[in-house]
Amino acid sequence: MSKKVQATTIGIDLGTTYSCVAVCDKQRKATKDAGTLAGLNVLRLINEPTAAAIAYGLDNLADRNHPKQKSVFIFDLGGGTFDVSLLIIGKEGTIDVIAVGGDTHLGGEDFDKAMVNYCVQELKKKQKKDITGNAKAMGRLKVACEKAKRDLSSTTQTSIEIDSLYEGIDFSMKFTRAKFEELNSGFLEKCMEHVKNCLKDGNMSTNEVDDIVLVGGSTRIPKVQQMLREVFEWKPLCKSINADEAVAYGAAVLAANLSGNGNKVVKDLILRDVTPLYLGMSIDEGTMSFILPRNTPIPTTREKTYQTRYDNQQSISVEVYQGECNKVKDNIFLDEFESE
């Protein structure tokens, strides 16, 4: 390279890259825009398990017996998404996110769909009727299956009964907890894989985790709790915070902290987050050059040297991507700029 190109810093606001439902840059921007359109002053976006960790931490920091630091694993299984986070909560009010993971397309709705599909097949078998093309019938069946799913968290068997479901035909069947667990075994195993991967990314063993905190309505499913206890060698699960309200509570606390409001504990809160995915740039006609690995503490600075393609090249075009695939076409495009 005969002409040296002046180094340029790639500035990406990594401190505001999380929200309750958004995991990629476009989703985060859409979430932030939605808040602005609603008349809200969007101070920061955080992910659900981090917000839950704030709620958990605030409830425990007042304890005089709180250790100097505590390793906490947040397991957040909601209706449509699944998130896990490994954090260290310090007695002085610091919350350090060590690793994050999960699946934005896994949650209670998947369990409902598995039940609905099973019922549809049973109806085909017994009544020779296919209701998949009838939106009203499918909607009624979904509501009934969701209620049965909730019932199975407190009983081992329940009934699904719908009058005149389709063409005057009544639908009735017994549904056991064992059948529910069988239908959703694949989803549940997937959840546990994400738990193990998060621990691996955080370089922490199960016996080093002090507390396992449950967040989200789907964590009430007995099989979820059983499998999670098995992963953590039968350590008791923490259910001290409201699974349905923890995220909103934690987000409100952080908003108070950023606004300078609240008591001393709230004002002293310090949250240090990590990048959820790899960040890099496109080189060699579409190859992803990774610069920041996922779970890198932020804010951060990294340097990497690249060569220009031609002698006396005056500028380079830098395309920034987020993702873990080797080809940028399979990752998420964030932005581009010219460096001279």
Account of the 3D structure:
The protein has 340 residues and is α+β, with helices and mostly antiparallel strands. The chain has 3 domains: 25-104 and 186-272, ATPase, nucleotide binding domain (Nucleotidyltransferase, domain 5), CATH 3.30.420.40; 108-183, Actin, Chain A, domain 4 (Alpha-Beta Complex), CATH 3.90.640.10; 275-339, Substrate Binding Domain Of DNAk, Chain A, domain 1 (Sandwich), CATH 2.60.34. Helix content is 34%, strand content 24%. It is built from 9 helices and 11 strands. The protein has helices at residues 25-37, 48-61, 108-127, 135-151, 177-183, 185-201, 222-231, 246-259, 264-267; strands at residues 69-77, 82-90, 94-103, 157-166, 169-176, 211-215, 270-272, 279-283, 287-292, 316-322, 332-339. The strands form 3 sheets. It has a 5-stranded mixed sheet. Strand 1 and strand 2 form a beta hairpin. The protein is globular. It starts with 24 loop residues before the first helix and ends with a strand. The model is unreliable at 1-23 (pLDDT under 50). One of its GO terms (molecular function) is ATP binding. Belongs to the heat shock protein 70 family. Keywords: ATP-binding, Nucleotide-binding. InterPro entries: ATPase_NBD, Heat_shock_70_CS, HSP70_peptide-bd_sf, Hsp_70_fam.
